[in-house]
Structure formats: C-alpha cells, structure tokens
Amino acid sequence: MSESLICDVVVVGAGVVGAACALYAARAGLDTVVLDRGPVAGGTTGAGEGNLLVSDKEPGPELDLALLSARLWAELAEEGLGKAVEYEAKGGVVVAGTGEALAGLERLAAGQREAGVEAVPVPPDRLPDLEPYLAPGLAGGVHYPQDAQVMPALAAAHLLRASNARLLTGREMTGVLRGPDGAIRGVRTDRGDIHAPAVVNAAGTWGGEVAVRAGVSLPVLPRRGFVLVTEPLPPRVRHKVYAADYVADVASDSAALQTSPVVEGTPAGPVLIGASRERVGFDRSLSLPALRALAAGATRLFPFLAGVRAMRTYAGFRPYLPDHLPAIGPDPRAPGLLHACGHEGAGIGLATGTGQLIAQALTGRTPDLDPGPFRPDRFPEEAE
C-alpha cells in the first residue's frame, strides 16, 4: 500500500550510523523517519565487531571524531543504554612483535597523547599483567584505556528505540522529491513519498548509490572483511588486542588481501578474530586464504587459540572513501541533502559523533568539530 508521510528529516539507512543520526536529531526536537530497504543492522553494522576505538587512529580529524564519539558512547552507557547494547569499557592493548614495530607504535602513541588520547606504554615484562595468555617474546605494547566495545546490532536497535523515530524497514528509496528551487524536499520510495526538508544519507556501503539517486556523486566503495567466531570460552582475552601493523592496514589503499590479527572476547564467551581487508566489490564468497591468515595471526598472539574450534565466520563490507575519512554534513550540490557515510571499519565507533554533527548541522548549531575535513563535496567530480 502506498502512503505519503511528512516529517522534519528522513534518515536513509537503519544501521548504527543512521540510528545515531536519528537519536541526536530527535533529541534536537526533529520529527524523524528512518527507512531501510532491509532490516535494522542488515548491512555493515550486522557484520561488525563493535569496535569503539581511538587506538587505531592517527592524529587528525578522524581521531578527533573518535574522541568525541567515545565520550558520547560513554554518556549513553551512563544513561542506561550500556547493558542493553553490551557496552564494555574494556580498553585496548596494541602489541608489537619487533623493536622496529614497537618504535613505530610508540611514535604513533606520542602523537595520540598530544591529541588527548590516554596511551600508556607497556614494557614486555608487564604485558602478562594485562593479558596473561599473550604469546611470550613480544617487544612491548601500548595500553589504551579509552577503547571500548558494543554489540553492533543491539546498538543500532536500541539507539533507534531511544530515538522514538518512525522506522520503515523493507522500503527502498528510489529517488528524491524537489521543490521549485531544486532543493530536496523528501524522498520517493517503492511504497510512497516521504516529505521532509532534510534527507540524511546514512546508507553505509550503498551510500554512493543513494547519492546518485539524489543527483550527486560520492565515491563510496565496498571493502570486504571476514570475522572468525570461536566456540564459547571462559574469559581469557580481557581487552581488545591487536598487532601494531593493523593501523597500517587500516590506512592502506591497497585492493589486495591484507590481514592483521585483532582478537577480543565477548560477554557471551566466543572470541572474535579479525581483521581482513580487500576490495572485491560485493563478492560475498568465502575466502579460505583470508580465514587461514586470520587464524594464523590470532594464534601467533594467543597460542591457546590453536586448540580452540572456530564455529562460524561472517563477512561484511566496509564503506570506503578514497581519503579514509567519512562524508558528514550538508551537500552544497543538493540543498537539503546531508551525508553520514563512508566510515570504513570505524562506523560503529564513530556513529555517535557523526549523529551529533548531523543534528547540529540540521539545527544550525555550532558543531563540536570542524566539519571541513568531512565535506561530502571534497572529491573531484568524475568525468562524464
């Protein structure tokens, strides 16, 4: 049945970023509708590990956004959402296997500290105090108390519930409505129009497709990643633990397969093992080389995992933009359109800060951060 709705803002995408945009828009007094062609957390969010990290970001705009987001996640947890979304302020431990890797990690940590990150050097003989089951012989590490974790699908669902936004799943945006002046005035869907003076593109990996339907270009590409899930175990991995080369993989532009071990426990018992990255379009087929590399990397960090069964694996696509920064804020090429996508593998952690910036843009309030680096129109237009 076709129907027409009226609201203040339409958020396209019911992943965690869209949910955070809805929450902060609603808190700013805006009547909000969220639509998604699939279910809540049906895309990248549902395939994420739930990382809320400051440790993996070099000083600059993304780290500033991560610090803002970490504070907002902690506030939401204190308000009562913590248990519902399995928020754990567990901290992170980044380890280096060689002196060279440790020197690079310590340089990164020094810059992060200047930006406001808590980064505590850990000599090799103190690593077992933090992680008793770590492999011996590591060169050292850095402890990041601000790193945290949530369960991604629960986070999206509970942020949406807290927003009281009208949620329309199974409904696809097919185009935009425009006023006489050409400004966007809502969206067309396969089941009716939604009239609103503002539309937020929070469609994750499909953000480029939504942008095209709104008449602009945004070069969002999918970057595939796998996660291994072990059988339930007693608590053995206390923090988010990863190898120092993970930071370089995050920043890389390579389309080839890259893996670096990221290991963490969960409240339910299974250990999650990532992280792989490769650009293969939307190919969901299982990659045995990627899974073997993940398992080998994880057992190098935690030898006890060699005797543990992997119960399942899942794949997801990180929404990747060429300069590794998300697109956040109004699009001057299409008045009424705002973007909140392209967060790559950091969308869950950056969701709250993104939602806050979007709400501030919608209501004309002074943004918490300089929005310039996240401008959606910063990429050169592709030649026709």
Write a structural description.
This protein is an alpha/beta fold and 384 residues long. It has 9 helices and 20 strands. The chain has an 8-stranded mixed β-sheet. Helix 1 (16-27) links the parallel strand 2 and strand 3 (32-36). Helix 1 runs parallel beside helix 5, helix 1 (16-27) packs parallel to helix 9 and helix 2 (61-81) crosses helix 9. The chain is globular, with a radius of gyration of 21 Å. The model has no long low-confidence stretch (mean pLDDT 93).
End-to-end C-alpha gap: 38 Å
| Gyration radius, in Å | 21 Å
Number of DSSP-assigned strands: 20
| Helix content class | 25-40%
Mean pLDDT: 93
Number of helices: 9
Low-pLDDT stretches are none
Describe the largest sheet: 8 strands, mixed
List the helices and strands and how they pair.
Layout: E1 5-6, E2 9-12, H1 16-27, E3 32-36, E4 51-52, H2 61-81, E5 92-96, H3 99-114, E6 120-122, H4 127-130, E7 140-144, E8 148-149, H5 152-163, E9 166-169, E10 173-178, E11 184-189, E12 192-195, E13 198-201, H6 207-213, E14 221-230, E15 240-243, H7 245-251, E16 258-265, E17 271-277, H8 288-301, E18 310-320, E19 327-330, E20 337-341, H9 347-363
Parallel strand pairs: 1-12, 2-3, 2-13, 3-9, 5-15, 13-20
Antiparallel strand pairs: 4-8, 5-7, 6-7, 10-11, 11-12, 14-17, 14-18, 15-16, 16-17, 19-20
Helix pairs in contact: 1-5, 1-9, 2-9
Index terms:
384 residues; alpha/beta; 6-stranded mixed beta sheet; 26% strand
